[in-house]
Amino acid sequence: MSTNLDVALVVELRAAGVPHAYSPNDPEYVSSLLGFNRDISHTPEVVVVPHTVDEVVTTVTLANRHDLSVRVLGRGHGAQAPITDGIAIATDRLAFVTVDAEARTATVGAGATWTDVLSVASPLGLAALCGSAPHVGVIGYLLGGGIGPVGRAFGFAADHVRSISVVTADGGLVRANAEFNQDLFWALRGGKGGFGVVVEVEIDLFPLATIYGGALFYTAEDTPAVLRTFAEWSRDLPDEMTTSVAMLRLPPLPELPEPLRGRFVCAVRIGYVGPGDDAEALMAPIREAARPLIDSVGEMPYAEIGRIHADPVDPMPVMEGGILLDEFDAAAADALLSASGPTAEAPLATVEVRRLGGALARMPEPANAVGGRDAAYGLHVVGAPVPDLLHTVIPQVIGGVFSAMEQWASGTTQINFYGRANQPDKKPTSWPADITARLREVRHKHDPAGRFPYPLHGEAV
Length: 461
What we know:
With 461 residues, the chain is an alpha+beta fold. It has three domains: 4-90, Uridine Diphospho-n-acetylenolpyruvylglucosamine Reductase, domain 2, CATH 3.30.43; 97-207 and 433-446, 2-Layer Sandwich (Uridine Diphospho-n-acetylenolpyruvylglucosamine Reductase, domain 3); 210-428, 3-Layer(aba) Sandwich (Vanillyl-alcohol Oxidase, Chain A, domain 3), CATH 3.40.462. Helix content is 26%, strand content 21%. It contains twelve helices and 17 strands. Strands 10, 11, 12, 13, 14, 15, 16 and 17 form an eight-stranded antiparallel beta sheet that branches. Strands 5-6-9-7-8 form a five-stranded antiparallel beta sheet. The chain has a four-stranded mixed beta sheet with strand order 1-2-4-3. The longest helix has 14 residues, at 53-66. The two termini are 28 Å apart.
C-alpha cells in the first residue's frame, strides 16, 4: 500500500518529466517490477520506467534530493534479493540498438536484450558476444564479464566494450572509455554494480555469420562415461572450441523433444569457431564415449546461438550458485556424479561444468575488472523450480555439491554465476583481492553516499 511519501514522490517525478513513475497504488507498479526469477518480489517505494536517458538523470537527481537509494532492474537472470526501499529503475523501455557495419560496432541501450542485438547485427554478417541465453539483457551480462558459447575464442564480452554511458550519483551523465573516466571504465567492465545507472554501451561486433555448434544428449546410463571422457577430452582443446557438459533433470513438457521429455540426460554443448571438419576431428573422443539420444551439432547461423544451451526463456522461481575449479579430472567427475548424478536423489534442474581458459584467461588492453580469469572450469548449479524447496532443501543440496568438489575448487567464483545458493561471504571472491579493493575505491569515489547500494559481505554499501 502506498504511503503519502510514495505518492508525493510519484507526483514530483511526473511533474519533473518522468511520466512513467509508479507507487504501489498504481496498477502498473507490480508488472513493472516483474523479473525472470519469480521467487523474488520487489517492493520499492517507487518504480520508474524511463523512456529516455534524461528521465534517468531526473530520477537520480530527485533521489539525491530525498536521500533515496536507487537500484536498477535489468532484463537478466541476476536478481539476488528483493528491493524493499528507495527507487527502482526498470530499464525495459531503453531498448534501442544501432549498428555501424563499417566500424563493426553496436550501440546498445540499457533495456536491450542480446536477441535485440542479434536481430540487427546478424543480417549484416556480424556477431555479438552474447551468452548462452540471448533473451537476457545486455548490460548486466557485460557488467559482470560475460562468458558465452564462443568465449574461449574471443574472451569475456566485457573485453570488447568500447565505451559506457552511465548516470552517476551526482545525476551527471558520464561517458567512460579508454581516454575518459578510465577508472570507471575499468570498474564497469567486470565490477558489476554500485557505480551508477548504465544507460548505453558501445561494443565490438565480429565478422562471423556461422559457427559449428549444437549439443549432444546422452542417457542417464551413459552419463558416467560421458562425464569422465569430457574431463580428459576438454583439457587440451584449442581456443576455438568452447564446450561444457551438463546433467539435466528435464520436466515432461510437450515443447521438449520426445527423447528428452521428463528424463535425466547429459548434454555436451559445443561452440566452435572454424571449419566444421576441424570441429568434427576434435569431437571424435566425445562422440565415441556413447551413442547420443540427439545430436544437433553442425554448422548453424550465429543468430541461432541460443540453441546450443537451449536455456529456458519463461520466468520461473530460481535458486542457483556457482564456483570456479582449478581442475576437472576423472576423480572430479566421479565426485560430481556421486553428489548430483543420475543415481542421486537431488532436486536439481542443471549441474553444468564449463571449460574456461583460452581467450577468457587473457587480460585485454586496456585492462578491466573481470574476475575468474585463472580458473580452468566453472561449475554452475540450478535448483529445480519447486517453490516449497527453494529456501530449505535446495540450498543445502547445492551446498553439498560444492562441498563434494572442494578438492578441485579454486575458492573463488565468477560474479555472473554467483547466486543465492552461494554463501554470502563468497561474493568478494568473485575478484582477486587487489581488484576487490580497487573496486571499493572506485565505488566510493563515484558514489560516496552509497546512492547505488552494492554491498559485499559485512559492508553496509
